[in-house]
Amino acid sequence: TKSYVAGPYHPAFGELVLSDRVLDQLEQRAEGRGRGTRMARLRPFLIGAEAAGAYTEVAAEWGVGESAVRAAVHRLRKDFAGRLRDEVARTVTDGTEVDDEVRHILTVLGR
Question: Does the first or last residue of the chain, that is N or C, have fewer Cβ atoms within 10 Å of its Cβ?
Answer without folding.
Answer: N
